[in-house]
Specification:
- It is a single chain.
- With 534 residues, the chain is α/β, with parallel strands linked by helices.
- It has three domains: 258 residues, Alpha-Beta Complex (2-enoyl-CoA Hydratase, Chain A, domain 1), CATH 3.90.226; 221 residues, 2-enoyl-CoA Hydratase, Chain A, domain 1, CATH 3.90.226.10; 42 residues, no CATH class.
- The protein is 40% helix and 17% strand.
- The chain is built from 20 helices and 16 strands.
- Strands 1-2-3-4-5-6-7 form a seven-stranded mixed beta sheet, with helices on both faces. Strands 8, 9, 10, 12, 14, 15 and 16 form a seven-stranded mixed beta sheet that branches. A two-stranded parallel ribbon has the order 11-13.
- Strand 8 and strand 9 form a beta hairpin.
- Helix 13 runs parallel beside helix 15.
- Bound molecules: coenzyme A.
- The site of coenzyme A has 13 residues, from loops.
């Protein structure tokens, strides 16, 4: 056992200040998440209830095993855009009849459950998660199809929705649709492409064209039921495999279908018989990260409050000390952890990361990246010392590593450091951010400063005087813009993470992710890296 010691003093002024700043950010986060939960607002929610229907989160609750967690994903999708927060869809991972599944549920109170560009991104992200982690996919469908005013953004890329469903099925990953209401036009292919379909009497409406469209196209008189009702699809077309009498019955049938999949996880699972909680209080995670990310903090203090028994076997602690690497377990699942310490990544850190990633691949152990980096070091000494080569080495290793990666943005995640630490483009299986995180090409002041220097040099080369007053105004404006674009809610709105989490939930969230990851086999890369530039 190598139990971490702590230097955190919960009674110190610093701790209190960090905690207060974090709590303030959590309050803001709650406010924004509440918008997603409120769906289309009281008017549409009330109308929906009057129709005797359940809200998407209620449907999910009834679908899941009682008293089991639901790891909601991308709750803030579309934040900061013209579309409603949450993008009219609820997605996440939960346990149905003992099987972890990926669940999507349209929110019919939000513009009739229609899919806008962010809904599409959210759904496609779910498909990726289901495929990579081998999770059965359950769709709770009630949607007006494409959000018509934004059709240009979704019609062409939206074909991927149906393509993915059949590719999941082809990969042996079951797909299931429960149709609670409208699923028309393109939306009809959601049940159409699913392995198993449940429809509800007098509720499900699944047709390529509704009565008005049919009348226009062929002159035929028809009605909803004969074109696409549950009775018709269960008895005549055969599109419905299960005929349910109401919503509760439909969800019960979905649970039975999942039970009959006899799904077996293919990962090795946990490697500890007894799971010990961390030795230090998770509550203290609120007081570790300073509001000003220029102040360093020790990531071991975070690790100590996340891993089993606070037991962390650090490797190469004396080499490249600005990156902490070591082995631990979370809820019994083994992990290799890479955590930034002093912010900057130097050549040693990059080489150490590369070696560590290779170790994890040889042992088939998932990797956890805890981000707090301002990027790779710049300057003559470092360029001459080969910082590009070494950063490239780390990016090569992270790109070609085959073990599952989990990333948590705890503090800064700037520049190519974001890439080396397995940022979004490097396909971590899951990526979450703390409210304290910030991510951008570089810090706002640096970026504004660089722009100003470039503009100044351009003015000099043109022989013009430089307008200092305009420069100061521009710098302030750019700084503000970059700052707001680097904040977690903005990034989460664009689906650059899978959610912003309360630091106190980190261990639980990672445990749920690791459990999901172990649904698929875990096999590291034995070779197959790009050419390492030495
Ligand atoms: N695109 C954009 N907005 C849509 C929409 C869509 N596909 N479907 C519904 N909306 C909007 C409605 O205009 C309405 O807005 P408003 O309240 O500001 O006037 C709101 O969502 C609720 O729609 P409403 O028709 O009142 O809800 P409903 O629950 O009674 O019916 C539908 C829902 C989906 C059955 C119905 O809206 C519908 O048939 N929509 C069009 C479906 C379609 O043909 N889609 C084409 C897909 S390719």
């Amino acid at each position: 056992m190598s139990v971490l010691q702590t230097g955190v003093d919960p009674n110190s002024a610093d701790f209190a200040a960090h905690r207060a700043a974090m709590l303030e950010k959590l309050t803001e986060l709650d406010t924004e998440q509440a918008k997603a939960v409120a769906g289309g607002g009281p008017k549409y929610v009330e109308r929906h209830r009057k129709r005797g229907k359940m809200l998407p989160r209620e449907r999910i609750e009834l679908l899941l095993d009682p008293d089991t967690p639901f790891l909601e994903l991308s709750t803030l999708a579309a934040w900061g855009t013209d579309y409603p927060v949450g993008a009219g869809m609820v997605t996440g991972i939960g346990r149905i009849s003992g099987t972890e599944c990926l669940i999507t549920a349209n929110d019919p109170t939000v513009r009739g459950g229609a899919s806008n560009p962010w809904t599409l991104k959210k759904a496609l992200r779910c498909h990726q998660i289901a495929l990579e982690n081998r999770l059965p996919l359950v769709n709770l469908v009630e949607s007006g199809g494409a959000d018509l005013p934004s059709q240009k953004e979704i019609f062409i890329p939206g074909g991927a929705l149906f393509r993915d469903l059949t590719r999941l099925s082809a990969a042996g990953i079951p797909t299931l649709s429960v149709v609670f209401g409208n699923s028309t036009a393109g939306g009809a292919y959601v049940p159409g492409m699913s392995d198993h379909v449940v429809m509800i009497d007098e509720r499900s409406k699944v047709f390529l064209g509704g009565p008005p469209l049919v009348k226009m196209a062929t002159g035929e008189e028809s009605d909803d039921e004969s074109l696409g009702g549950a009775r018709m699809h269960a008895r005549v077309s055969g599109l419905a495999d299960h005929f349910a009498v109401d919503e509760a019955d439909a969800l019960h049938r979905a649970r039975q279908i999942v039970a009959r999949l006899e799904w077996r996880k293919q990962g090795p699972g946990t490697s500890a018989d007894v799971v010990e909680p961390p030795k230090y209080d998770e509550e203290e995670l609120l007081g570790i990260v300073p509001a000003d990310l220029r102040q360093p903090f020790d990531p071991r203090e975070v690790i100590a409050r996340v891993v089993d028994g606070s037991d962390f076997d650090e490797v190469k602690p004396l080499y490249g000390p600005s990156l902490v690497t070591g082995w631990a377990r979370i809820h019994g699942y083994p992990v290799g952890i890479l955590a930034n310490a002093q912010g900057v990544l130097f050549s040693q850190e990059a080489q150490k990361a590369t070696q560590f990633i290779q170790w994890a691949n040889q042992r088939d152990i998932p990797l956890l990246f805890l981000h707090n980096t301002t990027g790779y070091m710049v300057g003559k000494e470092y360029e001459q010392g080969g910082i590009i080569k070494h950063g490239a080495m780390m990016i090569n290793a992270v790109s070609n590593s085959r073990v599952p990666h989990l990333s948590v943005l705890v503090g800064a995640s700037y520049g190519a450091g974001h890439y080396g630490m397995c940022g979004r483009a490097y396909d971590p299986r899951f990526l979450f951010a703390w409210p304290s995180a910030k991510s951008a090409v570089m810090g706002p002041q640096q970026l504004a400063g660089v722009l100003s220097l470039v503009a100044r040099a351009a003015a000099v080369s043109r022989g013009q005087a430089y307008d200092e007053e305009a420069d100061a105004g521009l710098r302030a404006m750019v700084e503000q813009q970059i700052e707001s674009e680097s904040l977690p809610m903005f990034l989460s709105g664009r689906l650059y993470d899978d959610g912003v989490i309360d630091p106190r939930d980190t261990r639980t969230v990672l445990g749920l992710c690791l459990s999901a990851v172990h649904s698929a086999p875990i096999q590291g890369a034995r070779g197959g890296y790009g050419v390492f530039r030495m």
